[in-house]
Amino acid sequence: MSVIFTRSSEALFHELAAVPRPVKFYARYGNPTVDRVARLVAEMAGADGALLTSSGMAAIFTTIFALTGAGDHVVVPSQAYGETLELFEELQRFGLSATYLDEMTPAKLTGALQPNTRVVYVETPTNPLLQLTDLAAVVETCRDHDCLVVVDNTVASCVNSRPLELGVDLVIESGTKSMGGHSDVVAGSVAGRKELLERIWWPQVLLGCVLSPFDAWLLQRGIRTMPLRVARQNHTALVLARALEAEPGVRDVYYPGLASHPGHQIACRQMDGYGGLLSFTVDGDFEATRRVVEALRICTYAASLGDVHTLVMHPAAGWWGRDFTPREAAHVPGNLLRISVGIEAAEDVVADLRGALRAAG
Ligand SMILES: Cc1ncc(COP(=O)(O)O)c(C=O)c1O
After folding, report:
1. How far apart are the CA of 187 and the centre of ligand 1, in A?
2. Contact, 34 vs 216, CB < 8 A?
3. Residue 20: its pLDDT value, please?
4. Which terminus has fewer CB within 10 Å in the chain: N or C?
5. Residue (of 175, 350, 328) closest to 280 by Cα position
6. What is the mean pLDDT of the chain?
């Protein structure tokens, strides 16, 4: 837990402090517990190393802050986690320009790349609409450009997807989700090659968005059961998605494991499992959707994903007491429900949703 480390002489103390990325100097620079868990995260991602941050957003911000500056350009998906989109809008105040793509196909990406493009930012699958991006194709398209491909892998998690194996430069994950798994720790990670992490580490020290040793320990506790939890969630989400597809009160189901999903073939190629997150539209309006939510008995109405409990959100109802930006609003129809399946019995989760849809219909 310690922030500081001492030695009996000034010379010995300087030995502690003088190593690259010291873990026994001052905890904003590093800490042995945090370092140990960072190595674990790196190993899971197939990376040289990883930095742990105080949240997933901190990982995204620190990475983009470190790799870009005024006059630079980034390519960003127009549909992704709402606060990520908002962050890229904020960064434009500092002279960063962005091109938003509704899908990152090689043709669209080629058209968007500029000589000053420094980062191509991808989220796959996206939250909340589970849009897939072909990472190998993005890497290939960016090969002759002086830019880095950064992927938010939160929804898939490193159990289901390891973008670095496909040639991506950096992979970001919100540790708050599947890694932590119990909604009792807010954390983030960025993993990749050592030289890139060196560039991100110092801005992280300056920003101070480090993970506390206690939270790193909680993250490690979560990681121990992560493969078991994620395997269970993969199974339940597929069972649930198929059941919802057959349900008369449901219009569209968004889940990469369904053959009907436009990204299914990409998911089959680049994911080991389809993940625990799915969304669907109720065959009705905002009010009908609200009634479904209120009829649920087992699923919990709460933000976040990757928890041991099944979490349901009605995105159009808002979740942080502010209006959506136009970019977000375009992607959250009033009848959309997002489900992050937990580790309950699949038949209980299916029965709860089926019962709620029928009771509200
Ligand atoms: C895809 C995705 N990326 C990043 C984040 C941000 O993570 P955190 O809440 O840990 O900052 C979230 C949070 O929901 C997310 O869903």
Report:
1. 9
2. yes
3. 86
4. N
5. 350
6. 95
Q: Which of 85, 154, 171, 331 is the best mutation target for the ligand 1 pocket, counting ligand atoms within 8 Å of the beta carbon and taking the most? A: 154
Dist. CA 320–CA 81, nearest whole Å:
13
Gap between the Cα atoms of 46 and 84, Å rounded = 24
Indicate which residue's Cα is closest to atom 8 of ligand 1. 56
Beta carbons within 10 angstroms of residue 18's beta carbon:
9
pLDDT at 96 over 70: yes
* 190 closest CA partner among 82, 41, 29, 22: 41
Q: Coil, helix or strand for 65?
A: helix
- Domains of the chain, each with CATH number or no CATH: 10-222 (3.40.640.10), 227-360 (3.90.1150.10)
CB burial readout 252-262, b (16+ within 10 A) else e: bbbbbbbeebe
Given a cut of 90, whether residue 323 has pLDDT beyond it is no
CA-based torsion, 61, 65, 70, 72: positive or negative: negative
| Mean pLDDT computed over 275-304 | 96
* pLDDT higher than threshold 90 for residue 361: no
Mean pLDDT throughout 158-162? 98
Which tokens hold the place of 92? 């434009």
Say whether 28 is catalytic: yes
Q: The pTM is what?
A: 0.96
Task: Using the predicted structure, report yes or no on whether residue 321 has a pLDDT greater than 80.
Answer: no
What pLDDT does residue 127 have?
Answer: 96
